[in-house]
Write a structure and sequence with these properties.
9 helices, 7-stranded mixed beta sheet, globular, 16% strand, alpha/beta, 226 residues, Spore Coat Polysaccharide Biosynthesis Protein SpsA, Chain A, single chain
Length: 226
């Protein structure tokens, strides 16, 4: 896919322990258009990104996942991306899945693609499976769009969807809000299975039950107020 202008968007908050390796792994597979959003980190996240010579955008304060993704996806569009992929900074994503993620877009079968951890969820902790299914169900009830993995951090967007999607959430609920935008703009969605690399570090960075409760609460409030 050398002729496609592909950008990798990495939101990062206090990811100094893992970010360098994530960037190195991407570069080793030929992915050189990398955008890192330092979301008000208090560690060496920004310093590491600067040394790796990526496109670096800094938030002076921690805005949250939604704010970081908004900055990163806007940057990708402005830099001329034909496809942008969001990619977690904690090392849980497998670089080898990127090619499969972009194929539905390249083949004209989808505008957006979700990398689903649930199609083959072997190794995923049971509590994560239950929590993820619950958030999938809430996402469906609120926005009428079913997905097997509403909270996946690996997503691909074509240029048209980058232009149209407008999320308002600054925090974790943005993952579900994307589906509202998919439906609002009649974007074609595909899902592909992805591999997840579970480490003690990546597990610790995952969502807690309290975070899941906050996501549901904010989604319901946003639905009522829209």
């Amino acid at each position: 896919m050398k002729n496609i202008k592909l950008f990798i968007v990495i939101p990062a908050y206090n990811e100094g322990k893992s970010l360098g390796k994530v960037i190195d792994d991407l570069r080793s597979e030929g992915y050189n258009n990398i955008i890192v959003i330092d979301d008000g980190s208090r560690d060496k996240t920004a310093e590491i990104a600067e040394k790796k010579n990526v496109y670096l955008f800094k938030h002076l304060v921690n805005r949250g996942l939604g704010g970081a993704l908004g900055t990163g996806l806007d940057a990708a569009y402005n830099l001329g991306a034909e496809i942008a992929i969001t990619f977690d900074a904690d090392g849980q994503h497998f670089v080898g899945d990127i090619n499969n993620m972009i194929m539905p877009i390249v083949n004209g079968k989808a505008d957006v693609v979700i990398g689903s951890r649930m199609i083959n969820s072997e190794g995923m902790p049971l509590v994560r499976k239950i929590g993820n299914w619950g958030l999938n169900f809430i996402t469906f009830l609120l926005f009428g769009f079913w997905t097997t993995d509403s909270q996946s951090g690996m997503r691909a967007f074509d240029r048209k969807s980058l232009c149209k999607i407008e999320t308002k959430s600054n925090r974790m609920e943005v993952s579900s809000e994307f589906f509202k935008e998919f439906r609002r703009h009649s974007l074609r969605l595909a899902e592909v299975p992805i591999k997840v690399i579970y480490t003690e570090y990546s597990k610790a960075k995952g969502q807690s039950s309290w975070n899941a409760f906050k996501i549901v609460s904010k989604l319901i409030i946003r639905k009522i107020m829209r």
